[in-house]
From TrEMBL:
It comes from the Eukaryota. This is N-acetylglucosaminylphosphatidylinositol deacetylase. Its main location: endoplasmic reticulum. Its EC number is 3.5.1.89. It comes from Eutrema salsugineum (Saltwater cress). GO terms for molecular function: N-acetylglucosaminylphosphatidylinositol deacetylase activity. It is found in: Endoplasmic reticulum membrane. SUPFAM superfamilies: LmbE-like. It is an enzyme of class 3 (hydrolase). The chain crosses the membrane at residues 76-99. Keywords: Endoplasmic reticulum, ER-Golgi transport, Membrane, Protein transport, Transmembrane, Transmembrane helix, Transport.
Length: 333
């Protein structure tokens, strides 16, 4: 009986291991190696000059190798179809936004009998760039419809020692978003400094919010939800400050809306196609949907924050659903 060559032994071992290999790149390498080994095996000769393996055996190995290769092809095709489908939906959604086919249910967010140009809306945020990263669809909608916008920013974002730079960047972003600079207030309070480890006093926040509401005759407040969109502790403290203000100042009859968070990371970074949130909001009258008809303005506004305009934030602005859609929920203290 003819001894099995080293090449055939290695080929059999690799064929045996291939079905258990889950890493697709390694599996592709297996197939390439198996094909090379089969070609080498088919050319091997005995001392008498005869083929070491029969043509039937070569064909048998070939069929087994191609079966492994077809498994890879099927997986690649499945991923390709999924990716292509997502791209088509994504592009179609962008076209819907860019070419004005807006949603009729995006809502008269502040419809309570007061004309828009007399309606004073206060955005309460924690850091420069929050307005562009998270709230730009709502800001664009309100400025387009002649609402009178104010922004209260509780810090200069000085965690990295660039507070003065970030303050100037917020001024430039507000110019892009058409928020009057005299209606922007940026605080640099010693007890309200930027940072994950910084705990902001809810009493202090409430006091400052109360002052802003009184000075500017604010009718509506828009801010973060309980999670703070990104989970940042400063964002969450701002929410609790607004909530406490609403509980204490019930006689003012101030409306307040919080920005909802997509709980699943896919929905958070699916760009303009967060249809699950949109369909969910349609079934709940306490939720409002704001579609950004000018997403390019959101890009331009965020680009003003040059100190923060690094590659991963560029990707965030492109793929984040917050660039294209805001789902707001009424705060009931």
């Amino acid at each position: 009986m003819m001894a099995i060559s080293k090449t055939e032994i290695n080929l059999r071992r690799l064929l045996s291991a291939a079905p258990n290999q889950q890493n697709q790149s390694k599996l592709m390498h297996y197939v390439a190696t198996l094909r090379e080994q089969l070609e080498q095996l088919s050319e091997e000769k005995t001392h008498e000059g005869l083929p070491r393996v029969t043509k039937t055996k070569v064909n048998e190995y070939y069929e087994k190798i191609e079966a492994v290769a077809s498994k890879i092809a099927a997986q690649v095709m499945a991923w390709f179809v999924v990716a292509l489908s997502l791209i088509v939906i994504w592009v179609a959604s962008l076209c819907k936004i860019f070419f004005g086919a807006t949603f009729s249910f995006k809502a008269a967010i502040l419809d309570d009998g007061i004309t828009p140009h007399k309606k004073n809306v206060l955005f309460v945020i924690a850091h420069p760039d929050d307005e562009s990263m998270f709230f730009s669809p709502t800001i664009n909608y309100l400025t387009t419809n002649a609402y009178n916008l104010h922004i209260l920013c509780f810090s200069t974002g000085n965690d990295d020692g660039m507070g003065s730079i970030r303050k100037d960047e917020l001024h430039q972003a507000c110019a892009v978003l058409r928020v009057p600079l005299q209606q922007l207030k940026i605080l640099d309070h010693p007890n309200l400094q930027d940072g994950f480890g910084q705990v902001w006093s809810h009493d202090l926040l409430t006091e400052i919010i109360d002052e802003a509401v009184t000075n500017h005759d604010i009718h509506t407040i828009i801010t973060f939800d309980n999670y703070g969109v990104s989970g940042h502790s400063n964002h969450r403290d701002v929410h609790h400050g607004v909530l406490k203000f609403l509980k204490i100042r019930t006689e003012r009859n101030i409306k307040a809306w919080e920005k909802l968070v997509s709980l699943k990371i896919f929905r958070k970074y699916c760009g303009p196609v967060d249809w699950l949130s949109i369909l969910s909001a349609k079934r709940h009258p306490s939720k409002l949907i704001i579609i950004n008809e000018q997403p390019w303005k959101s890009f331009e506004a965020m680009a003003q924050h040059l100190s923060q305009w690094v590659w991963f934030r560029k990707l965030f602005v492109i793929f984040s659903s917050y660039t294209y859609t805001n789902i707001l929920c009424r705060i009931n203290p």
